[in-house]
Amino acid sequence: MISISIAGREEHDRKVITDLLAGHDDFRIASIGKDGYDALRSAQMYRPDIIITDSVMSDIDSTDLAPIIKRHSPSTKLIVLYSQAEDGALGKALRAGISGYLLKQEDFENLTSSVRSVFYGGLYVSDSVKYTVPVFLEEASPLDQNKIIRHCFSPTELQIFYGIALGKKDEDIAKQLNISTGTLRNTVRRVKQKTGLENRTQVIIYALFNEMLNPDKILEQFRK
């Protein structure tokens, strides 16, 4: 069960978010508030997995709020809603420790996917601002780059998807990794939840696109 707190300026937005989340059995709404104070109080009282906030609230900006929440509830992750794309806003959000950057006008329908992705260790960014991520990575230190780039798959998950990409059966992959077939399939299911993708093919394409899987290594195995 993923526990979620909501802190939004507009009553309409709070209702839309609540309605979107309410239809999913793996979500539980811990609290609903209207400003940064409410978000911080929720972090202290409930330790939610996710807090969804506006980028700017009546008492504090989300980039100032994020490190405060992290001090009180280190495991809580923030998803922030932006009214419009702003120059430099994504880099500032990532540096503050925010895990989800959503534009309201294009991404409300993807809110549930972003919650699952962030909960399982991912980073969610609206499509129209994804092009700014490489710019941020160029400016980041090597430690920051590792923190951002390696957000998705563990070594075991990568080995599983290398095996799937090579066309191996689940039983053979599990035997090679010394895990049960059930564990392998549960791992695949968690990865799909984490990324918001629907099937194994999409996950492999996602991993290749984000340079988590090495296509040369896959081709080398095919040639053997």
In short:
Helix content is 55%, strand content 13%.
Describe the structure.
The chain has 224 residues and is an alpha/beta fold. It folds into two domains: 2-149, Rossmann fold; 155-223, Winged helix-like DNA-binding domain superfamily/Winged helix DNA-binding domain (Arc Repressor Mutant, subunit A), CATH 1.10.10.10. The chain is 55% helix and 13% strand. The protein has 13 helices and six strands. The protein has helices at residues 11-22, 36-46, 62-72, 89-96, 104-107, 111-119, 133-139, 142-149, 155-165, 170-177, 181-195, 200-209, 215-223; strands at residues 2-7, 27-33, 50-54, 77-82, 100-103, 124-125. Strands 2-1-3-4-5-6 form a six-stranded parallel sheet, with helices on both faces. Helix 2 runs parallel beside helix 3 (62-72), helix 9 packs across helix 12 (200-209) and helix 10 (170-177) packs across helix 11 (181-195). Mean pLDDT is 81; it is low at 134-151.
